[in-house]
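Notebook entry, structure prediction.
Reason for the run: the old model in the group folder had no record of what sequence produced it. Starting over properly, with the input documented here first.
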Amino acid sequence: MTQIKINKSDVFELKTDALVLGVFEKTEKFTGLVQQLDEVFQNKISSLYSENEIRGKLGEVTIIHNFVGFSAERLVIAGLGKIEEFDSDVVRKVSASVLNRLNGINLKQVSFSPIGADLLGIFNSAKSIVEGAILGLYRFEKYKSKPAGVSIKNVDLIGFTSVNEDQVQDAVNQGKIIAEAVNLSRDLSNEPSNKMTPSVLSEIATDIANKEDFEIEVFDEKDISNFGMGALIGVASGSVEKPKFIVLKYFGKDKKSSPLCFIGKGITFDSGGISLKPAQNMGDMKGDMAGGASVIAAIQAIAKLKLKINLVVIVPATENMPGGSAQKPGDVVTAMNGTNIEIDNTDAEGRLVLADAISYARKIGVSKIVDVATLTGAIRVALGTNYAGIFGNNDELTKNIIESGKIVGEKIWELPVDHDYDHQYKSQVADFKNTGGRDAGSITGAQFIGEFAGEIPWAHLDIAAISRTNSDKFYNRKGATGFAVRTMIQFALLFEI
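New structure, fully documented this time:
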C-alpha cells in the first residue's frame, strides 16, 4: 500500500526517484519553486518550454533526467492546463496522471511540490494531491492470479512545511479519509454479484459501523414484510438471495436534532426481472448498487471526520431476478405508505425499493432526504457521461448539492420536476405505474420517487451514466468510479455549517 507523508527535507537535498513540479499552459513567467530550479539549472526548464517540449497542457507529463548536483533522480513537469480553468480538481487529475505515468516505469518514491498552492492555499493543494494519488493508484485486482500491483510505495509532500505543519497534516488526513471512502465504494461496486449479495453488503456495513462506532440495524425479509414494504418485497421475490434493509445511524451532535438522510439504491444485481435486459454488458449490472455503495462509503468518511451532524443512511438491498416467483408486468404491489403501484416494467425496480426506503425515512423523522441511484438509462441520453442528473422539490437543497459537486469536481446538472409529467405514470388500476414511458424517462422516474417524499425536502441523484467508466482517465479507473461519495461528504460539511 502506498504511504503518503509530509517530507521536511530541503528540496535541493531531497533523495527521491522523482520531484514533481507544475506549470501552466501559455505562461509568460515561471514562479515559486519552478522559477528557482530553472535558475539553478541554467534555464533548462524554460528552454524546453519555449521549444514546446513542455507545453503545460492538462495531463501532460514530462520527465527530465540527469541534473548534476541534484539529489532527486528526475524532475517531472506536470501540465496544469490554462490558469483561468485551474481549481482543486485539476490538482487531483495532475496528481493521478503523474503517478500512473511513473508507476508505469516502476518508480518507488515520488515527491510533490505545493502545486497551485499560491492560488488554492496550502491546505487545498495538499488535500487534492493526496486525493488524486489515492484515487489514481486504485486497482481492483482481487481476483487476478498475478496482479500487476503498484510500484510506488511512497508519496511525499515536499515544501509544504513553511506554513502551519498541523494544517498540512490535517489536509493529508482529510484527503486520505475521503479518497479511501471513494475506493471503498469502488470496491463494493466492482465486486462480482455472486460475491456481493445483499447479505454480504449488510455484513460489510456492519463491520464499518462497529469499527467507526456508529449504530446499525439490518432488517431481514420477515422484518421488511412486517413493515409493509410491498414494493421492495416485490422486487426481491424473483431471487433466491434474501433482501436486506440496512439502516446506519451516525450522531455527531445532540440526538434530539432531526437527522439528514442519505438513501442509496442497493440492487446487487439487476437482470431486469421478467422484463429481461439484453445480454450484452449485463455483467455491468453488478454495479447497480453503486448508490448504496456511495452512501455507505460517505457515512464511513463522515464518521472518521467526526462531523457535527446527525445522519441516517438507508440501503434497500436486493437482487432483481426472473425466478419462478418473480413479480410480473401487470402485478400490483403496495408500498410501505399504502400507495398501490402497478408494475408496468419489472426493470424499473430501483424506484420501487427507493419508494419504501423514503417511506421508512419519513416515518423515523428525518429532516432532509438525498437519494443516490443508478436509476435510468435515459439520463445517459439526456446528459451523456460527464454529468449526473439531479431532481428535487427544494431549491436550496438541490443548489447545495450541485455546489458541493463543483467543489469536489463532480459535475451535476439539474433537470425539471413539473406536474405536467405526472400523467405519464398514472395507472388505470392503481395509484401509479412504475414507469412513465419513453419520453422524459429520467424525469418521470425521479418524480415517481418524489411522490413518496411528499413535502419533506428531497433530492434525487441519478448516477446511472457516470457510476462506471470504460477507460482510465486521470483519477478514474476502468470500472466503478465511486461517483457521489465526495459530493455527499462535501454536502455534509456544508450542512454542518
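Summary: The chain has two domains: 3-159, 181-496.
The old model has been moved to the deprecated folder.
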